[in-house]
Specification:
2 domains, four-stranded antiparallel beta sheet, 3 helices, 4 strands, 50% helix, DUF1236, signal
């Protein structure tokens, strides 16, 4: 029993940050948190993990006004060979565009998909389909 508890704690410690920060929305945050919680604590862990994941997912999601601005703007799409993934940086050659009144986010259009990016690291925060 003690070994199982230690193994569960190690799994949670390893997976929790990855699951929490890879979330793109409240819904996916809840699902990811529930999955990690279920591994560690069974049904009760799934409930607790789901709530925690939803909270982190909501915090990582850009505000509605940022998303609506990015959707309304018309910019040319840039083609890149690899898929654009939340948490990974867009290539250096891809031009980022500023969002008025919000310096926390920038955006671009890659492979015909609108992408909200963290300007300093160029990491993808959200992909808008």
């Amino acid at each position: 029993m003690r070994n199982r508890l230690i193994a569960s704690a190690i799994v949670l410690t390893t997976l929790a940050p990855v699951a929490a920060f890879a979330q793109a929305s409240t819904a996916t945050g809840a699902v990811g948190g529930a999955a990690v919680g279920a591994v560690v604590g069974g049904p009760v862990g799934a409930v607790v993990g789901g709530v925690a994941g939803a909270t982190v997912g909501a915090a990582a999601e850009p505000p509605a006004e940022v998303r609506s601005y990015v959707i309304q703007e018309r910019r040319p799409s840039v083609r890149v060979e690899r898929e654009v993934v939340v948490g990974e940086a867009v290539p250096a050659g891809v031009q980022l565009y500023t969002i008025p009144n919000n310096s926390a986010y920038e955006y671009t259009v890659v492979n015909d998909r609108r992408v909200i990016v963290e300007p300093r690291t160029r990491k993808v925060i959200q992909v808008i389909e």
